[in-house]
Each structure stands twice: as structure tokens, then as C-alpha cells.
Design goal:
301 residues; alpha/beta; six-stranded mixed beta sheet; 9 helices; 14 strands; binds adenosine-5'-triphosphate
Length: 301
């Protein structure tokens, strides 16, 4: 079942079509990547989903209801540009934001204590917002977007400015929230994070949806019949011509065999030849490669 549906949504700014007839469906409970080059229309799309701005045409449905002017309380939004009041203490600020989201004082305090502990911010919450490091301010903003337990959590570059330890901390929280039923819409330029975190994705270019689907299925559908062998043995000087060896780096060899040669044929050959196989796998293209290829193709169209 879908939590979010966009039907032919368009938005124009002074004759420029920032979003052009985008349709997409985000299934409930998944982590969904919203990708695209700079200026593709991602932020404009997010702003329409949150109700900050409105489509010129098309419809947006959240949990079956059409999105209207106010930000629905079932959404949590962590924008890329932070908007915290600098002179307030972290605690007061988050309490204020939680109250705005409709939590009672008692509930807000309870949730805040939970999150401050959870995100390792105990030595920070009494400080003023302006005293926070970039990473700490990022974590405070994360708390502000999840404190009211939204059904749909929209994260725009949530890991920017975070060190590897805090990146893992937030990644774990994202997985935990997803396991508890939260749907996560995740916008980023970091393609390796999409492979690691997202189950589904959409790629937007020049305001249009140019690729959408299951991340692994997308990688599989772009496969190019490439295989990699890793062996600790001395490798033969030459493999059969039809294997088309394309690269050899130390113990690793890459092949782009004739189309009729399958992975089992390669593996059988290696074993028959007594080659010790430490690793052997088909190589799927990265989301980064697919991003570049799809955007270039769509720019030429
Ligand atoms: P980035 O990855 O660089 O953040 P984006 O995909 O989020 O880009 P948007 O911010 O949605 O892209 O912008 C899409 C296009 O719409 C851009 O050409 C931008 O200049 C234009 N645009 C966005 N907001 C406005 C506005 N308020 N007035 C005029 N043009 C706008």
C-alpha cells in the first residue's frame, strides 16, 4: 500500500518548469531515495509534498488524502538548510518545536529526553543553538523532524557534516524508524548511500521522472554481463578468448564474456583448471554509473 502518491505534478517559476508532470508512488514502510542533479526539482517536489508550496497542476496524496496548505502533522521534514533560532538553548528550542507539532509539554519532554540520550547529546542540550558544531546542530534538527513520530519522514542530505560515528548513529535510527513503520523519503547526492540504505528510488532530471523502481532491480536491469574473479593462486597467463578478459589488477580479473557464456560456465572452467576461487561474482553497475548514464541520455533526448 502506498503512503505517498504524486500524479502528474507540475510547478513553474517564471516560465521555468521546475517540476514537469511528475508521477510517483512511495510504498508505506520503505526507504525511498529522491535523486537528481543540481536544479533537477527535488527541493521543489519536497516543498509541494510538505505543503510549503503548491503544484500548478496535478495531485499529491498522503495516506489517501490530498495534501493541502499546512504541513500535515504526519510528515517530519529535515530540510538541507537549517532554520534553528540561534539564541535559544537546544532544549528550549526542541521543546518549542515539539509543542508546535502538537505534543503536550509532558510528552514533549519525555520524547526529548529519549532522543537526547539516544543521539548522545547529553552534554549539548543545555547549550545555545549557536554554540553547536555542525554535526550537533544536524542531530538537533533530526530530533526536531522525528519527535512527533511522523508517518512520513523526509530527510534532505541528513548526513552532511556528520562524522562516521554520527553517520552510523543516524543510519541506525533511520533503519529503526523504518522497522517501526515510518516511511522515509531520502534526498541525497551521495549515490553510495542510496545503494546502502534505499529500497526504492526515483531519479529526476529537468523536472521529469526519468527512472523509478527497486534499487537492486534497477542495478540488475542495467547489468552489462561483467564478472570478477579473485584468486590467491597464480592465474593463467591467458583465458579463453570468448571470456574477453578486460582488466587484470593483481589477484583480480574482470571479464565481459560472449553473451552465451553464463556465470556457471565461467565458474566450471575455473574449477576444472584448478584455479582457487576466493571470490567470483557478477558485477552490477553502481547507482552512480546509472545516474550519470541516465541523466546524460535524458539530456540528449
Ligand atoms: P539541488 O540538488 O541543487 O538542491 P534541486 O533538485 O533541489 O537542486 P530545486 O531547488 O527544486 O532543485 O530547483 C529546481 C529549479 O527551480 C531550479 O532551476 C531553481 O532555480 C528553480 N527554482 C526553485 N525555487 C524557485 C523559486 N522560488 N523561484 C524561481 N525559481 C526557483
Amino acid at each position: 500500500m502506498s503512503i505517498l502518491t504524486l500524479q502528474q505534478v507540475s510547478k513553474t517559476f517564471q516560465n521555468y518548469k521546475a517540476v514537469d508532470q511528475i508521477s510517483l508512488t512511495v510504498p508505506r514502510g520503505c526507504i525511498y531515495g529522491l535523486l537528481g542533479p543540481n536544479g533537477a526539482g527535488k527541493t521543489t517536489t519536497i516543498r509541494m509534498i510538505t505543503g510549503i508550496t503548491h503544484p500548478d497542476s496535478g495531485d499529491i496524496f498522503l495516506g489517501g488524502n490530498r495534501v493541502n496548505k499546512t504541513i500535515p502533522s504526519s510528515i517530519g521534514y529535515m530540510p538541507e538548510e537549517r532554520g534553528l533560532y540561534k539564541k535559544m538553548s537546544v532544549w528550549d528550542h526542541l521543546l518549542y518545536l515539539a509543542r508546535l507539532k502538537g505534543l503536550s509539554v509532558q510528552k514533549a519532554k519525555e520524547e526529548l529526553k529519549f532522543w537526547i540520550e539516544r543521539l548522545d547529546m547529553k552534554s549539548w542540550y543545555t547549550k545555545k543553538v549557536e554554540e553547536l558544531s555542525k554535526g550537533m546542530s544536524q542531530k538537533a534538527q533530526f530530533i526536531a523532524s522525528v519527535i512527533h513520530k511522523p508517518d512520513l519522514l523526509i530527510l534532505d542530505e541528513p548526513f552532511s557534516g556528520l562524522d562516521p560515528i554520527n553517520t552510523n548513529l543516524i543510519k541506525d535510527e533511520i533503519s529503526r524508524l523504518r522497522d517501526m513503520g515510518t516511511t522515509i523519503l531520502f534526498s541525497t547526492h551521495r549515490m553510495e548511500q542510496v545503494e546502502e540504505i534505499c529500497e526504492r528510488m526515483v531519479l529526476i532530471n529537468k523536472g521529469k521522472n526519468v527512472l523509478e523502481g527497486d534499487v537492486e532491480e534497477i542495478r540488475k536491469s542495467h547489468r552489462q554481463h561483467l564478472f570478477e574473479l579473485v584468486s590467491e593462486n597464480d592465474l593463467p597467463g591467458r583465458f579463453p578468448d570468448e571470456f574477453h578478459e578486460i582488466q587484470r589488477l593483481g589477484k583480480k580479473v574482470r571479464f565481459n564474456p560472449e553473451p552465451h557464456i553464463q556465470s556457471a560456465d565461467l565458474l566450471r572452467y575455473f574449477l576444472n583448471e584448478g584455479i582457487e576461487v576466493n571470490a567470483f561474482r557478477e558485477q552490477f553497475p553502481s547507482i552512480n554509473d546509472i545516474f550519470i548514464e541516465t541523466v546524460e541520455k535524458s539530456n540528449q533526448a
